[in-house]
Design goal:
12% helix, mainly beta, globular, 182 residues
Length: 182
């Protein structure tokens, strides 16, 4: 199982399943990591394998959509390709709540991320187009398999915290994520 991510800049990368956080497990920040950056995402569960999927067919390859966030250790982001690769491989940094509900967010559903009860990101669900574009772009270069996730960053990564913090994510008031960075 992989997490295929279309970054905010339009590139496709793959995060390993060892980075996936299924539940609201707290993140114990290693000393080397220093500060954390984050990127909010919308993601879909892949329900059938595919490669070179056309835009008219992308809706056939996933069965649910939700929201989450990706974390990046800033000390690893030194501007080199190896630094970025190290940052996306760091364990316990892909917060994709699971299991997903089998329905799709309602049009206009509001996703909110907060740090210590301060809103740090907010957006409204406008449909499936973002995730379907990510599926099309990702499968130009790679095969997606049943059980994979395809995610699309909703904005460029930005500073999250440099010490302990409480992170929460809600979708229309329903709690998706609630964990501590220790």
């Amino acid at each position: 199982m992989n997490i295929v991510v279309k970054t905010a800049s339009g590139h496709c990368v793959v995060r390993p399943d060892t980075s996936w956080v299924r539940k609201n497990d707290d993140l114990y920040l290693p000393d080397f990591a220093g500060a954390l950056s984050f990127s909010p995402i919308v993601y879909a569960h892949v329900s059938r394998p595919g490669k070179s999927i056309g835009s008219h067919f992308a809706s056939r390859y996933y069965d649910s959509i939700s929201y989450g966030m990706l974390l990046y250790a800033q000390n690893l982001l030194d501007g080199s390709p190896e630094g970025y690769a190290s940052a996306i491989c760091m364990g316990h940094t892909s917060f994709l709540p699971y299991p997903l509900e089998q329905d799709f967010p309602a049009p206009g559903a509001e996703f909110i991320l907060s740090r210590d009860d301060e809103v740090i990101f907010k957006c409204s669900y406008e449909g499936r187009q973002v995730i379907e574009n990510a599926i099309v772009d990702a499968t130009e270069k790679a095969l997606i398999r049943t059980g994979d996730f395809v995610a699309a960053e909703l904005k460029e990564m930005e500073f999250l915290c440099d010490g302990p913090a409480q992170i929460k994510g809600t979708l229309d008031g329903r709690l998706l994520m609630d964990f501590r960075i220790i």
